[in-house]
Design a protein that fits this description.
The chain is an alpha+beta fold. About 30% of the residues lie in helices and about 20% in strands. It contains 16 helices and 20 strands. A hairpin with a 5-residue loop joins strand 9 and strand 10. The radius of gyration is 24 Å and the shape is globular. The two termini are about 40 Å apart. It comes from Metallibacterium scheffleri. This is Solute-binding protein family 5 domain-containing protein.
Length: about 550
Amino acid sequence: MPLSKRIAPRHGFHLAGALLTLLLLGGCAPRQPTGEIHHYSVGTALAPPAQQVFVRSLQSSPRTLDPSLATDVPGFDVLVDLFQGLTQFNAEGEVVPGVASRWTTSRNGLRWTFYLRPDARWSNGAPVTAQDFVYSWQREVDPDTAAQYAESLSMIVNANAIINATLPPSALGVHTLGAHELVVDLVEPTPYLPAALANEYFDPLYPPAIRQWGLAWTRPPHLISNGAFYLASEVVNGRLVLRRNPYFWNVGAVHLREEIEYPISNSASKLDRYLADDLDFADSPAFPPTDVDWLRHALGAQVHIAPYYGTAYLGMLVHEKPFANRDLRLALSMALERKVLNDKLARGLFIPAYSLMPPLPGYTQQVPDWAHWPRARRLAEARRLYAAAGYGPGHELRVKLLYDTQGSSARQYMEALTLMWKENLGADVRLWNEQWKVMLQDIQYKNAKLYWSAWIGNYLDPNTFMHQFQVGYAMNYGDFSYAPFQKLLQAAQSSNDNVQRYRYFEQAERVLGTQMPYIPLYFYTSDNLVKPYVTGWHTNLLDVHPAQYIAILQHTVH
């Protein structure tokens, strides 16, 4: 999932000259808290129903609340509470039954049958039926919808042909057996299907609302949802209010009566709001990285830092000059001092990345040999490749790097990259920034040749990272194509043996690293702030926190 999250870098060995000055100045000194640090006495009993209001931040305003069109983290954070798919994420980030109470699989793994809960209801009281899923999925793959995640349904029979407009949406390999049975036919075994189905683009939709209101169906009161909450009100680029859905099939287990969400993109502002008790939960990035030490001391267990299933990298248009040259791509990647960037700017909150896949149980990361070389050897090879690509004194690489305006720390990181390339290679890389939504459009329409990007895994499987470089995938923005990689990726996607699948994915990532169609920067961690009176909130690799499991405990502030 493309990232709307911006955690700017946060300490290594010394660099000389302008780079050292950059890394040590400008926002690198920790701020001091402007107000009183509050303390809480927390009981074990739940607060009264009237006090079951949960106030949280969002990284930014969601681009859309249409599950078929959402692509950003804030959108997912809202949709996970408004809608429920066949499966869902629990408080620990595990995949559990959702609208489907159970499912069966054919022996060859190509047909799945899902059995829906008869008591599942929309927020207007109408029953949720298997046909609502058929409608949603057909709409997702319909070319007229222009859904960027349409290829995520490509495991379903005929999905690719529909996306390419050679078959109608009605040909999608999904059908109903009555109101509460959904049959899904796959083109290849997909062991991770239950995990994928927990994502928003597999959510059901309420057809009457879309037919009646058109594009306005996602605005209250037109938005009809089937999750634990419904959208009561929304201010454009402002506050969202979600209220408990009285028709939710498991409403008796939902303690919150209301969830209030504030889009706050600046982490310093978010921290100030949290310290002022305006927020019960400040989502990652919850604070500037330079504040981590004093926050750990002052807030203790309220600070939650954990691994996060995401990778930040630089994307490139690899079919156009100058990045069609593999030697240049490798040179730029090898010339970066990732440990310096992490230690000096990120305060050690990130994990330097030399490959695509973040740490995942059962998967062996494919770190290139040069990542372990002494600095002098690595830089010498970077300069050799740079020269082999046709660049050097008098013929420097000149290119612009696009990134989004998410605060001063993001710019510091981008400036550090450009200075490293200048000092280590002589390359002239200029910065170009835009608002997040505008930047996404420029990347999508290939107006940027070099750009900041990131990928957050939708589910815990290598496929969610690897398939972004698959030929024909809409979010393969750099237009990468390399037959040996595609062959290994297809082998992994066709296997029903998870151990063998992982081995294929490892080989594919190793091949990907030899071509370097992206420049890996760091693996994410999540850094959240959560009040001690919030129960049901847990760190997890996906950093997903459904409000249906959250409650407010009795507490006093002093």
